[in-house]
Amino acid sequence: MRIVSLVPHATELLFALGLGDDVVAVTHECDHPARALELPRVTKDRLPPGLSAGEIDAAVRASVAGEGTIYELDTELLHELEPDLIVTQELCPVCAVTYDEVVKEAEQIVSCPKVIALDPKTIGETMGDIRTVAAATGARDAALDLVARQRARIDSVRTAVKGADRPTVAAIEWFDPVFIAGHWTPQLVELAGGVDILGFPGEHSEQTTWETVAAAQPQVIVCMPCGYDAARSLEEAQTFADQLRGVGARRVVAVDAAAYFSRPGPRLVDGLELLGHVLHPELVGLPEGVAGPLEVRL
To answer: I need a surface site. Which of 99, 154, 246, 293 has the fewest CB within 10 A?
Structure first.
């Protein structure tokens, strides 16, 4: 089978299911696992490099109002690859090439590829995506094994923090304007032994104000700007140090959002373990290979 992945979390899932040899192309943002970096890219970013958080937000809003996405699809290469399956998403209109564009293009490819969309909003739905990909690729046994391992790790964290004091948490997904993380993140916080006092499980990430964040009085702030690694998250947090200082949290950390929180793939469980370590370091160790939090000095 020849598979094209048009969203990073789908790429990670395909490789986790042992289907890496079937993947013939990925997006320009697919950077995990390392083998994905060797594959042809069928998308590119329309935004210029070096934009600030506010400039990116403005560009994204303008793009959605006009063309609907900040990414461009290499249709010529897609046709040349003649895939049997294209995996994409519909959830976020700025996270990937639009679903309608992909379907329209697929109808014109001689191999007549099947198109499936992975659009989880909760941790449970990410498990459902594993089964969806398995059904489309015949990877049933690998899917059952992956689901079992993911659930065991989730249960391990939940058991470790059972009965512990639960600090209040604010998960910042963007800084200018400030967004509170939604979708699966509030669930991760809860499972990790915290109380997400601003986010709503399964709902869209929500724009808010620094005054609202301060009024909620979180004890811990986790800085996870969408798509940024830990170093870039720390840089963003330091840029907005005055606003963060005004919230009055006892601890502020920056994490690798791109790896563990922005993408609803298998590494969300790494994110859960990381949050468990942030909130309860005496109960949950940092897993091997997972990049730890960076302390934000305010």
So the answer is: 246
